[in-house]
């Protein structure tokens, strides 16, 4: 068992109002948190950096797959250091970097979590990149590896400049998957980016299909990944080859997916939804799910995975961080910085 030195009182963010259309400052408050004693198999962690994800924003508007009752501490992903270990935790050292998985409630300076929810991380890694590893890279990994894409088939995806989109691109290049990236505005195409890029507003499915065919020729387009819903779903469906699969994994447009019967009935397009939390929970995916994070950590170590950062805010400025994260045309992720961010000064330490 280890003990921390005297530290300032930790803070915690609470969501107090999830009424749709409420201004961000009125949804959250910051309060002082009391340090609780920890159990034998628990670990006190000090948060370094936490991502503001679309999932966090959806949950604060009652639009997510799980809705905690109010007030709740938000935050699905982040990176932390070990501050104190319970009596039965023998394999973690104070100062070790860890990633809490499935713990939730991470927008805080400190959390007490079960040992089993922690994945150890290399201390010399870029803390901001580590903070962004749990949700979006894992989503990209599962979408590419486990949604039925066959060797030689083309892959299409929209919102290609999103964090998930960046990971899809990097993983597809690493795995040798032919890919077409779709964004809604030309400025979203990274300067000097290789590969195939199309700009689409989701309004003319046939025009998009013609552009796709110009790239793929007679080769099959087997899988399309939709982060948007609305008219974008139809656009992607029209671009798939017969019997292709469309996976809707995001609802960024805020609109219900539109899909005419032609592609479903006459062309045999198969549509399914995807939610990472659900996929991890399904018994059939038990073995495959154990392989996700070791694979991602290795790819991060090799430099295959790298996500763009827009800005890092202190926890005290959570309302501004939320407003910023909800804005379009960002260059990358908005993150929050916890009290313990000064620990381990390496590149990318928040
Ligand atoms: N199902 C799952 O398990 C799972 C897991 C992780 C993420 N997701 C979902 O994946 C999506 C991407 O997440 P992220 O964290 O990667 O997002 P992000 O980094 O915040 O990026 C958002 C992207 O969406 C684009 N966008 C927003 N609204 C749009 C619209 N109406 N039409 C076209 N493009 C639009 C933005 O383009 P501009 O730059 O042009 O504004 C930006 O590229 C979200 O829907 C998220 O909820 C799902």
Topology:
Blueprint: E1 11-15, E2 28-32, E3 42-51, H1 54-59, E4 78-85, E5 97-100, E6 110-114, E7 118-120, H2 127-131, H3 136-146, E8 154-157, H4 163-175, E9 179-183, E10 196-199, H5 205-216, E11 221-226, H6 231-239, E12 245-248, H7 261-265, E13 270-273, H8 276-281, H9 286-301, E14 309-314, H10 318-325, E15 333-337
Parallel strand pairs: 8-9, 8-11, 9-10, 11-12, 12-13, 14-15
Antiparallel strand pairs: 1-2, 3-4, 3-6, 3-15, 4-5, 5-7
Helix pairs in contact: 3-4, 5-6
This protein binds NADP nicotinamide-adenine-dinucleotide phosphate (NAP).
Polypeptide structure, described:
With 350 residues, the protein is of the alpha/beta class. The chain folds into two domains: 11-132 and 307-342, Quinone Oxidoreductase, Chain A, domain 1; 136-279, Rossmann fold (3-Layer(aba) Sandwich), CATH 3.40.50.720. The chain is 26% helix and 22% strand. It is built from ten helices and 15 strands. The protein has helices spanning 54-59, 127-131, 136-146, 163-175, 205-216, 231-239, 261-265, 276-281, 286-301, 318-325, and strands spanning 11-15, 28-32, 42-51, 78-85, 97-100, 110-114, 118-120, 154-157, 179-183, 196-199, 221-226, 245-248, 270-273, 309-314, 333-337. Strands 3, 4, 5, 6, 7, 14 and 15 form a seven-stranded mixed β-sheet that branches. Strands 10-9-8-11-12-13 form a six-stranded parallel β-sheet, sandwiched between helices. Helix 3 (136-146) crosses helix 4 (163-175) and helix 5 (205-216) runs parallel beside helix 6 (231-239). The site of NADP nicotinamide-adenine-dinucleotide phosphate has 27 residues, from helix 1, helix 3 and helix 4.
């Amino acid at each position: 068992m280890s003990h921390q030195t005297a530290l300032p009182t930790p803070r915690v963010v609470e969501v107090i109002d999830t009424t749709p259309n409420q201004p961000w400052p009125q949804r959250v408050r910051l309060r002082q948190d009391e340090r609780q004693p920890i159990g034998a198999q628990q670990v006190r962690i000090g948060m370094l950096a936490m991502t503001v994800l679309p999932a966090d924003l959806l949950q604060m508007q009652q639009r997510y797959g799980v809705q905690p009752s109010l007030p709740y501490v938000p935050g699905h992903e982040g990176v932390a250091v070990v501050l104190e270990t319970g009596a039965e935790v023998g394999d973690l050292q104070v100062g070790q970097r860890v990633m809490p998985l499935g713990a939730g409630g991470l927008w805080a300076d400190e959390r007490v979590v079960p040992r089993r929810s922690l994945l150890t991380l290399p201390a010399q890694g870029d803390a901001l990149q580590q903070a962004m590893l749990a949700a979006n890279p894992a989503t990209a990994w599962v979408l590419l590896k486990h949604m039925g894409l066959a060797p030689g088939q083309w892959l299409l995806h929209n919102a290609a400049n999103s964090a998930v989109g960046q990971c899809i691109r990097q993983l597809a290049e690493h795995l040798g998957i032919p890919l077409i990236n779709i964004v809604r505005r030309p400025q979203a195409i990274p300067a000097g980016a290789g590969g195939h890029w199309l700009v689409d507003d989701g309004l003319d499915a046939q025009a998009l299909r013609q552009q796709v065919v110009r790239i793929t020729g007679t080769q099959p387009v087997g899988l399309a990944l939709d982060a948007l819903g609305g008219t974008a779903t139809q656009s992607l469906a029209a671009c798939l080859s017969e019997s292709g699969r469309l996976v809707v994994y995001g609802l960024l447009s805020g609109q219900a997916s539109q899909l005419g019967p032609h592609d479903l009935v006459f062309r045999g397009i198969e549509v399914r939804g995807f939610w990472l939390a659900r996929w991890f929970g399904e018994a059939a995916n038990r073995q495959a799910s154990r392989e996700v994070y070791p694979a991602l950590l290795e790819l991060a170590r090799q430099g295959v995975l790298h996500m763009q950062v827009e800005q890092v805010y202190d926890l005290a400025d959570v309302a501004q961080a939320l407003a910023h994260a909800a804005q379009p045309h960002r260059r990358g992720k908005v993150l929050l910085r916890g009290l313990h961010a000064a620990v381990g000064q390496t590149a990318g330490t928040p």
